[in-house]
Amino acid sequence: MIRVTDGSKIRTITIDRPASRNALTSEGLDDLAEAVENAGQSVIHLHGEGTAFCAGADLDTVAELNQDSAEAFAERGQRTANAIERAESVVVAGIDGFARGGGVELALACDLRVATPNATFAEPGVQLGIFGAWGGTARLPEIVGLGDALDLALSGRVVDAEEARRMGLVSRITDDPRAVAEKVADNAPDALRVVKSRVRDRSSIGVQAAREAEAFGELVAEHAEDIAATRRATK
């Protein structure tokens, strides 16, 4: 269900269950979290096989849950989304085609969400009497704002790539999301790691500022020769 291909700079993680639009079972969630956490590359490219990014939770799995096991399944999905968000690697979601429910929630946990023109998004859980519970109720309003978050979550409607871009649900639209991941991976790995951790820091402004200054000092010291060479070349 989860296929990993390693390069020197990029780990490609493919959700490989196209007959089910890459819906995830409990095992699939665990395997995805493990693939993210074990990455040694500076960038992860997460995408789906076939015509979907991810349809979210496998409904055959959900249909067998009781109240306690449903809560545990939601917590499993949350752990996987948290693993993506907290990874040292920059995680680029390449979204081509169908993203629904938990698939949208996993994309929300990524650092960059890059869609093709064919991408579509929806939170259709309300149509089944449920909702996405892999951290989406927290991340969605943070990323798109309260108004658009409530619109998506309460209506269950489908939005295309252009509308998703307008509301901030995706970072950009391109025919080749992989190329974006490759471009990011051309940058210095330590700088990528530090910038991700600083931007995602939820501490107070004062604490963030101190940490930012410290991290900047460390990077300047580490890359002093590169900075000096660039300065000489531009004179």
UniProtKB/TrEMBL annotation:
InterPro entries: ClpP/crotonase-like_dom_sf, Enoyl-CoA_hyd/isom_CS, Enoyl-CoA_hydra/iso. Coiled coil: none annotated. It comes from Haladaptatus litoreus. SUPFAM superfamilies: ClpP/crotonase. GO terms for molecular function: catalytic activity. This is Enoyl-CoA hydratase/carnithine racemase. CDD domains: crotonase-like (cd06558). Belongs to the enoyl-CoA hydratase/isomerase family.
